[in-house]
Design a protein that fits this description.
This protein is mostly helical and 70 residues long. The chain has one domain. 93% of the residues lie in helices and 0% in strands. The longest helix has 37 residues.
């Protein structure tokens, strides 16, 4: 049996387990990201404020592009 056939059979056999693991991992990551954002929100907003002031031309360019698309 070649690699591809083996992969297909393995997937069919363990599909629900694999999907459950993926779902759990994704939920864990989302929870971590939310918590991290909640803890570091002030720092992030400060950084964004600084970045905007430094890169004013880029910001203006983004706004122009956005307006054109609509």
């Amino acid at each position: 049996m070649n690699e591809q056939e083996y992969q297909k059979q393995y997937w069919k056999k363990n599909k629900k387990k694999i999907q459950a693991k993926r779902r759990a991992r994704r939920e864990e990551l989302n929870a971590y990201q939310k918590e991290y954002y909640r803890k570091n929100r002030k720092k992030l907003l400060e950084y964004m404020r600084e970045w905007r002031s430094k890169n004013q031309e880029k910001v203006q360019g983004y706004l122009k592009k956005r307006r054109k698309k609509k």
